[in-house]
Amino acid sequence: MKKLFNYSIVLFVLVIVLLLIIPLPAGLVDVAIILNISLSMMILVTTMIIKEPLEFSVFPSILLITTLYRLGINVSTTRNILSNGGSSGAVIKAFGDFILQGNVVVGLVIYLIIVLMQFLVITKGAERVAEVAARFTLDAMPGKQMAIDADLSSGLINEQQAKVRREKIQREADFYGSMDGATKIVKGDSVMSLITTAINLIGGSIIGMVQSGQSIGEVLTTYSIATVGDGLVGQIPSLLISTATGMIVTRAVSEGSLNEDVSKQFLAQPYAIMIAGVATAVISIVPGMPKISMGMVSITLVVSGYYLAKRIKEAPEVPGLATQMGASDMQGIPEGEGEETLQAPVSEEEYYKDVNNVYNLLAVEPIEMEFGYSLIPLADESVGGRMISRIVIFRRQYAQDMGLVVPSIKLRDSSALSTNEYCIRIKGEEVARGEILVDYFLALEPENPERIIDGIETVEPAYGIPSRWIRPEDRERAELYGYTVIDPLSVIVTHLSEVIRQHAFELLTRQEVVHLVENTKKMAPELIEEAFPNLVSYGMFQRILTSLLKEGVPIKDLETIIETMIDTLQETGLPVKDLDGVTERIRTALKRTITRMYCEDGSMKVITLDGELERTMAASISKGEGGYYMALSPDMIQSLIRQLAEQLRKFNGFTQNPVVLTSQVMRIHFYRLVEPFYPKVRVLSFNEIASNIQIQSVGSLRLEGPEFRQG
What we know:
Blueprint: H1 2-6, H2 8-19, H3 26-49, H4 59-83, H5 90-100, H6 104-154, H7 159-210, H8 216-249, H9 258-267, H10 270-283, H11 291-314, H12 318-324, H13 327-331, H14 335-343, H15 348-351, H16 355-358, E1 367-371, H17 376-379, H18 387-402, E2 409-413, E3 421-426, E4 429-435, E5 441-444, E6 456-459, E7 466-470, H19 475-480, E8 484-486, H20 488-502, H21 504-507, H22 510-521, H23 525-531, H24 538-550, H25 558-571, H26 579-589, H27 591-598, E9 603-609, H28 611-619, E10 621-624, E11 627-630, H29 634-648, E12 659-662, H30 664-674, E13 682-685, E14 694-701
Parallel strand pairs: 1-2, 9-12, 9-14, 12-13
Antiparallel strand pairs: 1-3, 3-4, 5-7, 5-8, 6-7, 10-11
Helix pairs in contact: 2-4, 3-4, 3-8, 4-7, 4-8, 5-8, 6-7, 6-8, 6-18, 7-8, 10-11, 22-23, 23-25, 24-26, 25-26
């Protein structure tokens, strides 16, 4: 019996198929019709009770089965009507007599109105909504999956939760895709109902007059009752199913059941109810209007609205608190106090009387980005903003390239900025600012443009390239003139990514170092146990990684970094505090990675140091309390910086970043000399370049004048 129950749906479908073939007596047809109406009502109520469409994910299949069931009943009733002189059970006769009321024309008109209403309004509307929902759901899938990846990488959810959310997104896409096709079935069912009605009326009339010899009046009376009754018993369930289809495809933004949502959202607008009551009272002044009925409706609406407004005013202002407090403030409320806060309104003074709440103000976000009013749509996903998804892509790419996971970036609006401005903060302090024209495109000027295009002159914020803000219609023309055209969102994301690259060493916290080491421990546990904490502390290791990131060296290959660190400390006997020596050995071990970053087509363009200059600088190295440093005269430093500025101009026509090549001993000291003036210049040693790379010198720095030879 249990097995039979498990296959009940299969058996039900087989019975439906048999309805198309085997004639049924009128009694069984009545049972089938009643079951069809009851099933349709049950489906409609279910679609109104569920909180989200996926709770009734079998609806597309149910829609197909119920449609097939109705078609089977239509075939049986049509067979009975045409073969039994217009008789096909008590249900059809009762519906026909009730609707016709002795008037064939009125009955047929009412029936046609019901059919056309269901076909043109409900079915067509549900079909369009399902089509749009399917397209939008599929378009939104990449962004939703990126948001899941962002939450996963920032630690807001675990892998299991991410898997569940991904499966839900996939199920939503499949569901709305199925609904898009299922609505075509409902549309076809409506068309078939009209065809069946015409067949019953025309075919029955012909049979009645030709075979039975009845008069036209008798034929129309008999077969019109049967036709209208048969049409109604098919159209009422079809109307219910069509309504259920519309219900389920329009529930995308619901938070509860239909009853909860309608009650909550309508009753939350008492003034709209009162205004409707006043408007009804005004309409009742029109001559001929039923003033008593309209007056009763008007008074009911006004009194109900006033009562609801009074209740809302007396209720605790929970939403107001959440609106006034930002996301960062809400995160600071302990769990135990959260419920208490929601139960009663708390003023700002009362909230900060608790010393523990004051500590929440001390939190500093690693990365913040503030926007002026006009730029909010770029980051607001509810209006199609794609900035968050672009940041997620950058975070993933940066982790793959550099081995560092960029922390979550807090996005918020700021009234302190002008409408088109944005500001980037690192650990609470502003490090960059830019201005964007949302309705324009940014055209980067080439070195020798064919023609100057009209636009608002500006400077590209990330790299300082002269640019122009141009209208969208001028984009193609600008590209023909040799300009590189960028959309506003790409300008912001590029600037943000460049700022993060420049300040990545500041984002590497002690806690993040522990995470990176623990992640490496999964693959090389013995290596980690040998290094930490006996040989080196996490703090010392953080300083090494920070030094690498500051000069743009990836820390992705942690195994090589740790192995080299261990070997250097054990073989050379360097003290742990001599982090410069350890870092230089690590850079040599990573030479393939470093070479790849600055090599183009097997060659590397560099600026070299004259031998005499290197010897002079090496002789000036002294040891102080903070370690070794290079003691050069101010005039000599000024000369070197001036020469370097001249040589860097030679890289303007190259895509490669500027590189200065020195000996291993001088590398770190020369980097510290030029870094305050030219932070983007990379200083490499000969030991950090792979042997198969051709070095091409584009310039050289040298001693200028005999006065510098004394050092």
